[in-house]
Amino acid sequence: MADAETPNAAAAAGGGGGGELLVWPWTGILATATTTNTSADAVNTLSVHAEHHFAGVPTTALHETAAGDDGDGHHHHHFLLLHFGKSWSGLRHAISLRARFAGAGRREWLRRRRRPIAGVVHGWPAGEDDLRAGDGGAVVGRFLREAGGEARSAEGVEREEMRVAAKLGAIAGELERRVEFLEAKCEEIAGAAKKTAAYSDWLNGELQEEDLEISSLRLPSREYKCDDAQTLHENHKQEMEAIYAKLHQLEKQLKQRQALEFTVQQLNKKIQAGESLTKEDHEHIYNIMVCLRTIVDEEQEMLVDSCAELMKRLRTNCDELQEYRQELMKGFENTTITGHTIIGIKRMGELDERPFHLACKRKHRDNDSEGKAARLITYWQKEMKKPSWHPFTTIQVDGEDKEVVDENDPKLRQLCIDYGDSVCNAVKSAMAELNEYNSRGRCAKNELWNFREGRKATTREVVKYISDQLKFNKQ
Where does the record place the XS domain (predicted)? Predict the structure, then answer.
């Protein structure tokens, strides 16, 4: 989760002490002074040095005016802050400024800043003195404080990371156990829900059959007037045999064996003795079937309630799982994302700014390409949040409706014409993520992301990644 480099190794690489207080996130300072306000030339000079030594590092240009020693007017101090980030490699880069600008560090800058020598560039790692700087660097100190800079030692940062790692380790162990428990419960609930659905279908079938049998017991009055008594007796006998078999089957399943079996046996004795069933016997059988129907209804209701409870537990477990993911996200918030990061935080719905900068460099070349890229990014960030703009269309995927970005949207087509596919695809990707994660608010949201495979990371993957990192750090 952090660079493999240790703080002592990083400090030793630049010749610094691990206990020295430097500005964190690690920052470097390049400075030069002029007697005239030639900001463009001074910034260009500092930028050339920054690009030569630390290509690709984000920078911030600052300027302030100071009085000269001999009352000969004002001097202009120009600074370029190098933002190295929070990693150990960033610390190593910051400390390396001492070696790169030996003889032209902070001490020399403080001595010469009121008597500048044209073209001389000074460089040093930002430290506690710069954070609290007044005269001759007030603008730097103010910027560092407003940006949330802190005076921290390498050992202090390492202790904090070890504390966070220990906390994450405890969370990871608990989460691993809970994930296994929840997954087992999910499988159990899924199986139970499937069985419940099948059993419910079976019960409905049974009820329909019982309705038919109950109806058949309500003999029409005309059958009592049948001339052929023997035929009627045989019909009754066949009906009772079928009812007995069915009752016997249901009493086993619904655990009503003794009461129902006794009643059916009494009726069966009458049939075997050749007795005709009376109207009271038929009413008795009908009451039994009504009772049985009530039992089946109660059983079905109980199963439905059980299924609802299972679904409620499933939702609760899913909510708990989401809470655990939120806790994991907190642990990853301060993790620096690099090209080698496997698991980390991805801002879903946030524009990828790199295609904008590359496209503006190609299109505008030296004509303030960075400024135009920044304005273009700001414009599209605002455009994406407008509810009135809905660049989506609905398509069928596997028989279901799915909302996707409309390739023929006029704004997107014009953007593609003006700045190319890469910029247009960046906007499409961000809009698709916003539509999936926050379609109403259209605000970027954090998500645990598997950068190696380019997809949302599962909770099991995150827990395993944390465990692997802890094992690696212990070695």
Answer: 20-132
Q: Are 130 and 123 in contact (CB under 8 A)?
A: no
Cβ 147 vs Cβ 44: under 8 Å = no
* 188 Rama class: left (phi>0) / alpha (psi -120 to 50) / beta: alpha
Instruction: Confirm if 350 and 430 have CB atoms less than 8 A apart.
Output: yes
The confidence score (pLDDT) of residue 427 equals: 94
Q: Residues, the chain, total?
A: 475
What radius of gyration do the chain's Cα atoms show?
A: 40
Rounded Cα gap, residues 113 and 139, in angstroms:
14
Handedness of CA 127, 132, 133, 137 (dihedral sign): positive
Which CATH architecture is the domain 7-152 placed in? 2-Layer Sandwich (3.30)
How does pLDDT run across 388-417, given as a tens digit for each residue?
899 999 988 888 888 899 999 999 999 999
pLDDT band at residue 86 under the 50/70/90 scheme: confident
DSSP state of 337: P
Using alpha carbons only, what angle is made at residue 127 by residues 124 and 133, rounded to the nearest 5 degrees? 100
Write the CB contacts of 14 (distance below 8 Å, at least 6 apart in sequence): 91, 92, 94, 95, 96, 97, 98, 99, 125
Domain ranges of the chain: 7-152, 350-443
Give the dihedral sign, CA 448/454/455/460: negative
